[in-house]
Amino acid sequence: MASQHKAEHGRIEERSKREERADRILDAAAELMLRWGYNKTTIDDIARLAGVAKGTIYLHWKTREDLFTALMRREYNRLVKDFQRRIASDPDGGTLYGITKHSMLATMKSPLMKAMFLKDTDLLGEWMRKEYTSESFPQQVAQSLALIESVRSRGVVRDDIDAHRQVYMLDAITIGFLVIDQYMPDEFKYSDEEVVEMVTEAVKRVFAPPGPQPDEKTKQEVANTLISSLDNVLAIRNKIDQEEATS
Amino acid sequence: MASQHKAEHGRIEERSKREERADRILDAAAELMLRWGYNKTTIDDIARLAGVAKGTIYLHWKTREDLFTALMRREYNRLVKDFQRRIASDPDGGTLYGITKHSMLATMKSPLMKAMFLKDTDLLGEWMRKEYTSESFPQQVAQSLALIESVRSRGVVRDDIDAHRQVYMLDAITIGFLVIDQYMPDEFKYSDEEVVEMVTEAVKRVFAPPGPQPDEKTKQEVANTLISSLDNVLAIRNKIDQEEATS
DNA sequence: TTATGACCAGATAAGCAAATTCAGTCATCA
DNA sequence: TGATGACTGAATTTGCTTATCTGGTCATAA
Fold first, then answer.
1. If DSSP codes are grouped into helix, strand and coil, which group holds residue A243?
2. For residue B119, which residues of chain A lie inside 8 Å, CB to CB?
3. How many angstroms separate the CA of A63 from the C1' of C24?
4. What is the Cα A96 distance to its own chain's centre?
5. Does B60 contact strand C, using a CB cutoff of 7 Å?
6. CA distance linking residue B221 with residue A51, whole number of Å
7. Residue A128: Cβ within 10 Å count
């Protein structure tokens, strides 16, 4: 009994130690990827920065590509959780503009995810071509569509425009504010927060319904629906990950 | 008297023949540039397609770079004139959303200008790095700012936002709608006209002033100011061109 | 005088062998 | 049993030579 408990305890401790190490390796990978891009970040570099031997990395992931995929998944998980947290703690988290605001802030704070949404080849290099990206944006758009339909049905945004077009407009506006700083001269540099303020204002006005503001209860509902649907997305993804890991 | 007139007539005819040929050469350059991009479009190709000898091209422009700069200038002139024509014939030509609508339509119809605004390296290649682009966008932005200030002062758009931010927002939105189609999956493909309809709607809502619609006279004024300020821009540019040509 | 295209030199690409890099493995160690 | 890093072969890069291309000129022809 005692020994069994001890063994289990040991296993758990070991597991968490493993995970901690995996995290450290991913941290190193993230740092190097941001500095040098995918193509120029080698396993040796990562191992050195993480303070482990190269072989150790292969105790965690089968290939280099897998490692970076894991990194991006972790980044995505963090982004989504950050997003959920922001939504939950903002009274406007149940409005379209609130949602846009927090999704943009979360995206801006995560350079790797931003690179992925914007298909930044410099950073993602070869990884983009094979892995994630083909599914990534369409998936993002699908979620956009579900979101729009959810807020429309509750009268939180106007519904006198085709839903698909509304998604198109919303994505055009957010992408626009994500890329515009590359084009503007120096007199027009704004902080992330200022930019987000501007998108929020724009989204608020473009999608505001003709009637009165949504009441608190509706906003709560929308926020909750969104948060739990994101829980779902994460759960499904993690399930797929596990199945892939076991197979 | 008669012979003098004849000579003059001859000179004019000759001049216009020259210009016609220059135009033909630029047409060829435009076609090839769109197909192969700047880097892979050779003077020989252009000469062959235009049906002239290579040396003839150097009777018109000192260098290859000059030729493409002339092409872009012609394209810009055409865009501006197209834009002016559209503005003049639209009753909403004196509103910010009308202006946006027509500037976007004009831009979309001119792939080379679109490439320039978006800094499309694939198309513009080396030309971009040396020539136009450094001045191009800032100049565009400066015009944006002048435009915003002009419409603001006449109450055509709201003035409860900092003018610089308004420019930033307007440019973010237009750029967004110009690039978004690269990101959207196939179910979300819209024609230029449909896209412009959406931008117009967005701009209308984001920048609408709180008060009543501007009256016809104000719109006329704004449209006229804009058109003549564009005349000015063109005049200045052409003057610079001539000075460069003579020096 | 105007237009041409053969011609030139410098730049760019193609070809190729040697050197280096790097993802992934595995015998060895603790 | 978990971690290591020397090792391997495939892939990429480097260095260099040769071949091709192409912007720009200019003697010649119309």
1. helix
2. 182-183
3. 8
4. 18
5. no
6. 69
7. 18
The terminus-to-terminus CA distance of chain B in angstroms comes to: 33
Tens digit of each residue's pLDDT (9 = 90 or more) over B123-144: 999 999 887 666 776 778 888 8
Mean pLDDT throughout B113-128? 93
Q: What DSSP string describes B145-205?
A: HHHHHHHHHTTSS--SS-HHHHHHHHHHHHHHHHHGGGTS-GGG---HHHHHHHHHHHHHH
Q: Which residue type, as a one-letter code, is found at position B184? A: M
DSSP state letters, A145-161: HHHHHHHHHTTSS--SS
Interior angle at CA A116, CA A115 and CA A121, nearest 5 = 65
Tokens of A184: 């503007």
Q: Please name the residues in contact with B165: beta carbons below 8 A apart, sequence gap of 6 or more.
A: A190, A194, A198
Q: Distance, angstroms, CA A36 to C1' C12?
A: 28
Q: What are the two backbone dihedrals, phi and then psi, of residue A124, each rounded to the nearest 5 degrees?
A: -85, -25
- Give the integer Cα–Cα distance in Å for B181 and B123: 18
Say if residues B135 and B45 touch (Cβ distance below 8 Å).
no
* Residue pLDDT, tens place only, A177-218: 999 999 999 999 999 999 999 999 999 999 999 989 899 999
CA angle A23, A124, A26 (to 5 degrees): 5
The three-state secondary structure class of B51 is coil
Burial of A7 (0-12, 13-18, 19+ CB in 10 A): exposed
A44: the nucleotide nearest its CA (via C1') is: C22
Q: Rounded to an integer, what distance in angstroms lies between the CA atom of residue B11 and that of residue B6?
A: 9
How far apart CA B79 and CA B116 sit, in angstroms, is: 12
Length of chain B (residues): 247
Contacting residues for A242 by C-beta, under 8 A, at least 6 apart:
none
